[in-house]
Amino acid sequence: MLKIFQAVVLFFTVVTAAAQGNPKPPVFTPLSAESKAELDEFRRLVNRMVSKRNPGQMLSRAPKDFRVLQTLAEDPSIKHADRNTWIALGVAYGDALIAFVPGLSWSEVHDEYGPGVVLRYKRTTLTIAAPVMFAKRVERGETFDVPFMANELKKYVQENAGKIQ
Question: For labelling alongside 52, which of 68, 77, 85, 144 has CA 20 to 30 A away?
Fold first, then answer.
């Protein structure tokens, strides 16, 4: 598990370093109406999955969602879901991270990797690609521990936020 998380931290470090070393810095903008609508559609998808398994239950955009997302990620019926389903779970994870790590918020970024929706720490270049975090791990055949990842990300942000512009 630690190996997987170290890969996550390495990814964030590389992305942040690349953004800082790139002569053309990333450009951050507030979410467009289109991005907001897309995030909301992903949220509805996850809430339908949660409600299907536990009628009446919905995600709360709080840290307690990490356990619910872990349960979904381990569900055999979701193991082979399409990329959009995993991205939807990543969006729900991002929503819970915002409540768990003060200073994170959704933002659009345009950088050397192209445009995307990420979690941005305050007004720095530290970003977390929450929507694709699960999808990439599933594509590589990895397993993951959602609460553990959240705790390690929080530690990483707390330890490195002051070092990143």
Answer: 144
Q: What is the pTM of this model?
A: 0.85
Count Cα atoms within 13 angstroms, Cβ side, for 52. Answer: 11
**What residue has token string 């239950």?**
57
Say how far apart CA 165 and CA 161 lie, in whole Å.
8
Lowest-pLDDT choice from 22-31, 52-61, 66-75, 112-121: 22-31
Q: Are 121 and 114 in contact (CB under 8 A)?
A: no
User: Over 54-102, what HEC string results?
Assistant: CCCCCCCCCCCHHHHHHHHHHCCCCCCCCHHHHHHHHHHHHHHHHHHCC
